[in-house]
Amino acid sequence: MTVTSTPRTGVTLRLLDKADKEIVKLDRAVLGAFYRFQHDFRRNPQAGGFDLKQLEGHDRLWSARVNREWRALMIRLGGDDWLLVAVKHRGHVHKNLERFNYGINHITGAIEYVDLQVVEESVLRRGPTPPAAPAPASPPSAAPAPPEPAEEPLFGAYTDQQLVDLGVTQPLLPIVRKLTTDDELLGLAEYAPRHTGEVLLRLRDGVPYEEVMEQVTAPVAVAEPEHNLDSDDWQAAVDRSQTVVITDDESLQSILEEGDFGRWKVFLHPTQEKLVRRRYSGPARVGGGPGTGKTIVALHRVCHLVRQLPPGHTTPVLLTTFNRNLAADLRARLLSLGGPDVLARVDIAHVDQLATRIVSEADPGNAKRRIDDTAALREWRELLVETGQARWSAEFLSDEWNQVILGQAVSNRSDYFTARRAGRGRSVTRSERAGIWQLAERFAQRLETKGLETHRQIAERAARLEMARRTRIDRRAQAREERGGLDNLHAEAGSGAWLRYRYRHVVVDEAQDLSAAHWKMLRAMVPSEPDDIFLVGDTHQRIYDNQVTLGSLGVHIRGRSSRLTLSYRTTREILRDAIRVLGGADYDDLDGDADTLAGYRSVLHGTEPSLRGARSWDEEMDLVVEQLRAWHDVPRESTAICVPTNDMVTQIADRLARAGITPSEITQDGPRGDQGVHIGTMYRFKGLEYRCLIIAGASEGLVPRASVDAWEHTDPSRHQRELHRARSLLFVAATRARDALAITWHGEPSRFLVPLLGRDAASG
Questions:
Q1: Which among 83, 466, 615, 724 has the fewest CB atoms less than 10 Å away?
Q2: Res 169: pLDDT
Q3: 3-class DSSP state for residue 684?
């Protein structure tokens, strides 16, 4: 993080990652005292009331009085630069002082602190073994029972040196050697420095040693060889550490009271930090599974780009995503993260809003009525009936029009003859393309006559307008170069404005759901320069049928693609079942290659997801009510129900209301109220998260819908795309749950649940 100090006194007070998790558990009175302590300490650490003392036997560890009973432990980095590592009861501060271990990790170069006694007691402490019941007397001739086999240590296959070379905190090795269960390992990961926890969890997951070294350790290892690392240069080490400078009371309050987002505002993982601050020679992509912090990286990237801008009042940075809900959430988060000064330099709009704005500039009198893809499909069917055409189905023509003609901003017949049709499955001849183009022209005329247009048409037109604008910009730049760098004032004045690119930087969230036309529009809005386009997304979460290859659209990310693998939101148990839903299907990386969730994991531990079936939808709704009542200690607004159809939203809301549980439907503008259980279709849950979530109606015929299999023989490519999309919707829904997940169905369970049912017998 950026290091600043308090201007009045020159005192710098920093907070070490994970110290906040200990502080937030303090009762409210102690937490209030801590707020007062840090406020006053930043002004004058030498005030007598702090009773500032260096702990015996420690050259850098000091204690300071928070209140009568509690003390802050701090590492003195130098002068009046302090790193707060813990808040402890005074009775635990001066006992067994060798338990406090801190230093600079020789692999990562970061500052680490650990209370060895707390770790050992919390992780390895087992209750007394209850006395065994008396065994029945054995006949004299009976052989004695064999002793119970000793539990094998989890990391016995690795030497101490191997673990240290991976960056495991060396003083923790004796405790690591005693670990024999996954529960103990997860407990250690809670208290250990984050890098140590990640390394051990990856090894336990069966990842080969060399891959852990490459994927976990190498990205955060210091560049210098080990012998050049100064283990006593604490000022250099703090820049490599996950710390935050406490500059005001509000910044600390946001860390402690805003949950995960509050922590992410300051405690980026070193891998994330590098992605945020890196200078890229062109477009760059960050992928990763749900909960890995892609959106957080995008928001920090926006702040980083804004801070590099020269002073001014323009908005040269665009932050965009695929729908209105997510755009509103991005705005709120960016304001919280960067404040009004950053927000003032950023244009935040979802891509269809952006496209509409571009088209409205060119055609301010446009009064056409917008229709969705379902209404457009009805128009295709009516056109085929009226023309008597039976060679192509309405579904095929609608997809061809959306994915190829509009999707690639194809504006004439000759361009359509050469347009790429990757992923369309069925090939078409040149004469067939001529017939399809003729029908597409008639369809466009039909919509024009009726005063109708689709969002995809708007995106395609916006793309063409921006591409034409870019061509004019490039021509003027070339002409200016030919004139020796001089502008043609008459040409500029005639345009009514100086013609420039709309943005210097474009940042895209949920990139997997944008269409090819959207990408053409965005590519034309920003010059092809370093740091021009930064996109984050995961094709495993693609919920719209937009298959794109970015390189073919001028967005070249080859060599500038990174992947995050650590989930901070979802438990290992939920994550495991969510990945099983994907069933090993192949997913692309937005550039023609395969994407993967290999190495995707979580450090969180929880209960197994619940799987329950019923004979009817009516009985299943009873199961939903029963599950919600079992979660009675969870705030209703932290629970949600996800269903496949809008009708089921209405029905489940009515059932909850009759059961005395307040429902709150999720609309395109977000939940209708602040209170109550949130209910919505799977499409509404993108970008949301809940402590507890129910996926209801996960039945065969609903997930996926029964009509999908009609394409299995007539259009195998579309059949596979629709199955992919249905899997992705279920995957997205499952990974919205943070602590607990319940899945219910009636009749036959969805085919996607079969891998889950093998571990848990279903009732029904």
A1: 615
A2: 95
A3: helix
**In angstroms, rounded to a whole number, what is the distance separating the alpha carbons of residues 734 and 757?**
15
The SS3 of residue 276 is helix
SS3 percent helix, strand, coil of the chain, rounded to 5, is 45, 15, 35
**Bridge pairing between strands 317-320 and 505-508:** parallel
Q: Are 692 and 740 in contact (CB under 8 A)?
A: yes
Token readout for 709 is 């299999």
What strands, in cross-sheet order, belong to the sheet with 284-288? Answer: 346-348, 317-320, 505-508, 533-536, 284-288, 561-564
- Full DSSP string of 486-553: ---HHHHHHHTS----S-SEEEESSGGG--HHHHHHHHHHS-SSTT-EEEE--GGG--S-----GGGG
Q: For residues 523 and 552, what is the distance between their CA atoms, to the nearest angstrom?
A: 11
What three-state secondary structure class fits 6? coil
Q: Report d(CA 177, CA 158) in Å as an integer.
A: 10
Q: Round to whole Å and give the CA distance between 735 and 737.
A: 5
Q: Which amino acid is at 505?
A: H
With 0-12 CB in 10 A as exposed, 13-18 as middle and 19+ as buried, what is 692? buried
Which region, left, alpha or beta, applies to residue 230 given φ > 0 means left and ψ of -120 to 50 means alpha?
beta
Q: Measuring CA to CA, which residue among 733, 631, 742, 612 is closest to residue 681? A: 733
Q: What's the predicted TM-score (pTM) here?
A: 0.80
Instruction: Name the amino acid, one letter, at 520.
Output: K
Cβ contact 19:85 at 8 Å: yes
Query: Which whole-number Å values give the CA distances from 286 to 469, 560, 651, in the listed order?
Result: 29, 9, 39
Reading phi first (left if > 0) and then psi (alpha if -120 to 50, else beta), residue 484 is in left
- d(CA 692, CA 635) in angstroms, rounded, equals 10
Token readout for 621 is 């709704």
Whether the bond into 219 is cis, omega within 30 of 0: no
Q: 613-666 pLDDT, tens per residue?
A: 999 999 999 999 999 999 999 999 999 999 999 999 999 999 999 999 999 999
Distance CA 71, CA 90 (A): 6
